[in-house]
Amino acid sequence: MRFVLMLETVLVVLFRALLGFAFLVLIGAVLLQVAGRFGGNSPVWTEEMSRFALLYLAALGAGLSLRSGELVNVDVIIESLPERASWVLRLVSAVAVAVLGFYLLPMAWKFTAIGAFQTSPALGVTMSFVHFSMFLLLALLGFFALLRVVGMLAGTTDGRPHRLTDESEG
């Protein structure tokens, strides 16, 4: 279990850094586009770059949001139940997310492979890079949901999300 916790910590740090980088790319592209409009010559590629950065923001942020509890979650009914029933429903939910995420991975990979035959019009990058964001989104959702399942079954967590405030205090 110690290895799993270390792996989770390393991946959280890595994907937070990549998320920050994607956000910086988005900010840079949008700022350049706005500045270009004031100067009368906005680069064409900035719109495409901002779209791709948004895709990666969503892909990288989905798994981290699932882990931290920031992903949309309707838990009013679950949390009003007795603790054991609430725990079971959180486990079922985590299993369902993990299974669905991992089940869709082969299809997302086919979608990524299709992009090898296309390039983006303005940037000229292969669309596999863009399509890979969907594969990444499903892989991260599945991975962090699986970590929740493992933690719940091992007794190291109750299945509630890791709040960001808890992480900074610990």
UniProtKB/TrEMBL annotation:
Subcellular location field: Cell inner membrane
Transmembrane segments: 12-34, 49-66, 87-109, 129-150
Domain called Tripartite ATP-independent periplasmic transporters DctQ component: residue spans: 26-153
Keywords: Cell inner membrane, Cell membrane, Membrane, Transmembrane, Transmembrane helix, Transport
Family from the record: Belongs to the TRAP transporter small permease family.
InterPro entries cross-referenced by the UniProt entry: DctQ, TRAP_DctQ
Oligomer status and interactors: The complex comprises the extracytoplasmic solute receptor protein and the two transmembrane proteins.
Biological process per Gene Ontology, one example term: C4-dicarboxylate transport
Keyword Membrane on entry: yes
Mode of membrane association: Multi-pass membrane protein
General function of this protein: Part of the tripartite ATP-independent periplasmic (TRAP) transport system.
Cellular component terms (Gene Ontology): plasma membrane
GO MF: transmembrane transporter activity
Stated name of the protein: TRAP transporter small permease protein
Domain of life: Bacteria
